Amino acid sequence: MTPIKACIFDLDGVIVDTAKFHYLAWKRLANELGFDFTEEDNERLKGVSRMDSLNILLEIGGVEVDDKVKDELARKKNEWYVELITHMDEKEILPGTTEFLTLLKENGIKISLGSASKNAKMILEKIGIVHMFDAIIDGTDITKAKPDPEVFLLGAKALNVEPGECIVFEDAVSGVEAAISAGMYVVGIGSKETLYKANDVVKSLADMTLDRLAK
Ligand code: BG6
Ligand code: MG
Questions:
Q1: What is the pLDDT of residue 1?
Q2: Which residue ranges have their beta carbon within 6 Å of ligand 1?
């Protein structure tokens, strides 16, 4: 069995629950464009890059605009999103996260972030755990969005480990697919029904133990 040398974590939905803030900002944009955007619609945006999310939202509203307007709409949404996350602090860290990261550190397992978000580093700083990461790969480093494996392969490279020596933690279907394409073992965070492609599924990082990892 290949020894585990590194763990790569998605951010949104794994370490923090930012989906609610993304939702409020996208909903505001949809409303401004004259249509509604439900929480169910928002599920389709989890793990999806900012521009791809905008394209889905516009498709839902049946709105067609050129690329220049799209850039402006994405900028606006991000401004609102950043406003909403301004007050984030360590209380927003999802249960079990800090304990699990500490356990990994104590056992010499390297830690990387593998997120599609361009706001990832700022969020890690706000919640006070940025120092626990040996590498941070986020939306500013990648050219191809999940389900492309780029984000996770860059994480393995930054940590100087082989893909087969990494475990990925992901809440989004596209992220689970990205990890599988990268040749990594993947633990889904959420429901087995949605994340059935993952090698293992837990409700949250609070359910993770070293024994479970070793298996
Ligand atoms: C992902 C989120 O982590 O990051 C998506 O799940 C989001 O909902 C994407 O669209 C991009 O985030 P940002 O912060 O760069 O707009
Ligand atoms: Mg996620």
A1: 59
A2: 11-12, 22, 45-50, 53, 78, 115-119, 139
How far apart CA 104 and CA 98 sit, in angstroms, is 10
Q: Which atom of ligand 1 lies at the shortest distance from residue 13's CA?
A: 6
What is the spatial distance between Cα 63 and Cα 75, in angstroms, rounded to a whole number?
A: 17
Centre a 10 Å sphere on the Cβ of residue 12 and count the other Cβ atoms it contains: 22
Q: Which of 24, 48, 86 to mutate to test the pocket of ligand 1 (most atoms within 8 A of CB)?
A: 48
For the chain, what is the radius of gyration of the CA atoms?
A: 17
Tell me the average pLDDT of the chain. 96
3-state secondary structure of 152: helix
pLDDT digits (tens, 9 = 90+) for 96-139: 999 999 999 999 999 999 999 999 999 999 999 999 999 999 99
